[in-house]
From TrEMBL:
Topology relative to the membrane: Multi-pass membrane protein
GO cellular component terms, A-Z: plasma membrane
InterPro entries to which the protein is assigned, alphabetical: Pra-immunoreactive (IPR051791), RDD (IPR010432)
Localization per Swiss-Prot or TrEMBL: Cell membrane
PANTHER family, alphabetized: MEMBRANE PROTEIN, PROLINE-RICH ANTIGEN HOMOLOG-RELATED
Record keywords, A-Z: Cell membrane, Membrane, Transmembrane, Transmembrane helix
Ranges that cross the membrane: 12-29, 41-61, 94-114
Keyword Cell wall biogenesis/degradation: no
Organism: Sharpea azabuensis
RDD domain residues: 12-116
The organism's place on the tree of life at top rank: Bacteria
Major localisation: membrane
Protein name as it appears in the record: RDD family protein
Any Pfam family the entry gives: RDD
Amino acid sequence: MKFAVRKWLSALIDFIIDIAVMGLFYTGARGYVADGDVGKGNIMLICALLAIVFLTCYVPYKQGQTVGQAIFKVKVINKDDSKRTMMQILLRECIMKFLFGSLFLVFSAGYFLINNVIMLKDYNIPLPHDAILKTEVIDLSKN
């Protein structure tokens, strides 16, 4: 399988996992709010955010990869081979990918379309979030 396709599929797997986790907590929160217990609903939403931060920040910080990256044998590293900081991971995995994507749906669709066209044509071109954070995605299947 092409490296560019595996990069895209790893991001898709991570997105599906995050949406599934958010959906479970959101469903619970709606149940509490419908019963009139807004406090428990808010706690469920806070738990959802903590779970997403755990999956997208803590796991990559400790293991070096997200779940999707581990499945498809890709890894994000710093260009100077130093360990990624928690702030880089937070910015790349949470803020740049998901926050902006959900707030600016039209921009996000265009952004991902352009990125996927770039990745399919020449995957050595850094994507915008990698260029800003000075990271790159490497292929672990060749090791």
